[in-house]
């Protein structure tokens, strides 16, 4: 059973992490973090959609540091579970940072890179008083619904957007893409587990008239095309390996359908922020979207559940036999062993399960090598 890190929460809070049942959602208001009040300047602005997915749409005020995720997506998606799992994952990574801090004070161990998790501030229901002041700031056809309030992930700068557009966008729509407000919300999905079957050469952008910089999928061969070094791609792989090991063995979460994005670092850098500077500019790696995550049991069935989640996900992770696999594999196992020993919970059994997870991935040897 997953246990909450020792950060001062009461036993009553455990229900938030063990049941995503919406009937318990009123308990979510026990968290002390509040949504900041808007000033007079902000109230004259409107919320703008900055992203969309199967679970819902994401909105923000211009230049604001908060993102509001609405539950207006598919009927089988749960924002309540997203919130519960997001908090659980955030606490796991906070615990990872604490372990690293303790380790750095007692040894010369090199601290490995760490993925960023957006701070998750609050869950609001359709009856929350917040809607009375804010509904009019959404388009007229929108009604109150469940909402998660979280830290907004910064978008890439114009320099990065221009690089991607020049390289991969049809010349016919380059100007339109660069001028559109929608494409200013540029985050990049690092697809280390896929290479395109027909590589787009430097001076031969895509002939298709559909192009978006929102969650732009950057494949391994494209990273090579724009000059991202093997060393930086290895860093991405290690960050993913550490992140998944933390989910599995601290959070006891399967990682199903999570997303990784490259984006600028948080405005207030915290402990463990890994800064990377290359053709994309200054950035780090973020992890988000936890609505399909589920608790995993600490046994063979839980490992098989995690393996299924690995292959169901978008091709973020390197695949066995690829040049980045060893970096990913070694970091996953190194982090697993470290956090298991630090948490001192059934260490022998969990170490076996972590190795078993990697063995099953390598046994499958499913290589997604094109689209």
Automatic annotation (TrEMBL):
InterPro entries: Znf_prot_DUF3669. Residues 285-341 form the DUF3669 domain. It holds the Pfam family DUF3669. It comes from the Eukaryota. This is DUF3669 domain-containing protein.
């Amino acid at each position: 059973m997953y246990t909450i890190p020792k950060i001062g929460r009461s036993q009553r809070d455990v229900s938030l992490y063990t049941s995503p049942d919406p009937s318990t959602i009123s308990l979510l208001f026990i968290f002390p973090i509040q949504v900041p009040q808007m000033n007079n300047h902000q109230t004259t602005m409107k919320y703008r959609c900055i992203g969309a997915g199967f679970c819902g749409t994401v909105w923000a005020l211009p230049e604001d540091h908060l993102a509001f995720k609405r539950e207006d997506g598919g009927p089988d998606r749960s924002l309540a579970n997203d919130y519960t799992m997001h908090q659980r994952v955030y606490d796991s990574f906070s615990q990872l940072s604490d372990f690293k801090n303790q380790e750095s004070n007692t040894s010369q161990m090199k601290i490995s890179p760490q993925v960023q998790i957006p701070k998750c501030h609050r869950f609001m229901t359709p009856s929350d008083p917040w809607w009375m002041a804010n509904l009019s700031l959404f388009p007229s056809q929108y009604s109150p619904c469940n909402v998660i309030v979280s830290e907004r992930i910064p978008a890439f700068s114009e320099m990065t957007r221009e690089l991607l557009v020049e390289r991969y966008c049809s010349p016919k729509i380059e100007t339109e893409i660069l001028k559109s407000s929608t494409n200013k919300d540029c985050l990049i999905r690092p697809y280390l587990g896929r290479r395109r079957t027909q590589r787009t050469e430097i001076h031969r952008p895509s002939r298709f008239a559909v192009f978006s910089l929102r969650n732009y999928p950057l494949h391994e061969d494209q990273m090579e095309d724009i000059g991202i070094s093997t060393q930086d791609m290895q860093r991405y792989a290690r960050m993913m390996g550490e992140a998944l090991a933390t989910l599995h063995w601290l959070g006891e979460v399967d990682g199903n359908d999570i997303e990784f994005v490259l984006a600028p670092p948080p405005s207030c850098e915290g402990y463990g922020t890994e800064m990377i500077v290359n053709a994309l500019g200054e950035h780090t790696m973020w992890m988000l979207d936890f609505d399909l995550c589920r608790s995993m049991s600490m046994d063979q069935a839980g490992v098989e559940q995690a393996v299924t989640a690995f292959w169901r996900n978008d091709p973020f992770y390197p695949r066995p036999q690829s040049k980045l696999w060893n970096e990913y594999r070694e970091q996953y196992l190194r982090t697993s062993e470290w956090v298991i020993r630090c948490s001192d919970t059934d260490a022998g059994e969990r170490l076996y399960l972590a190795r078993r997870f990697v063995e099953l991935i390598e046994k499958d040897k499913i290589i997604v090598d094109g689209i």
